[in-house]
Amino acid sequence: MSRLKLGGIVCCLLLRTAYTIPACAQDDEDCRESRMHPDLVSDRGRLTSQSKIAGEETTEYWLDQGKQFVKEKLHTPANQNIAKNVIMFLGDGMGITTHSAART
Fold first, then answer.
1. Helix (H, G, I), strand (E, B) or coil at 33
2. How wide is the angle at C-alpha 43 spanned by C-alphas 46 and 54, nearest 5°?
3. Is residue 67 a contact partner of residue 76, using CB atoms and an 8 Å limit?
4. SS3 call for 74
5. Is 92 labeled as ligand-binding?
6. Fewest CB within 10 A of the end CB: N or C in the chain?
7. Is 69 left (phi over 0), alpha (psi -120 to 50) or beta?
8. Taking the complete model, does pTM exceed 0.90, yes or no?
């Protein structure tokens, strides 16, 4: 097979492959986002998997949510039975001085 014929076949295959790849109808940012997160649905023109809560765009909504959360936590009795906190240091290549400083 001649080089010219082989080059033509390769060129045709590359062009065919380029045309079979679906083009993104959205802007470039949406294309990259859909490739990185294929399970999430774009919110442009389609329904999203996350529904918006009424009023969540306002500051008052979040202030009320914060106040309600604090009130709930203040009325919750403290845990007196078991330890609640665990501190774990994970480090790679930590020297003796860094390790000692993390322990104090």
1. helix
2. 105
3. no
4. helix
5. yes
6. C
7. alpha
8. no
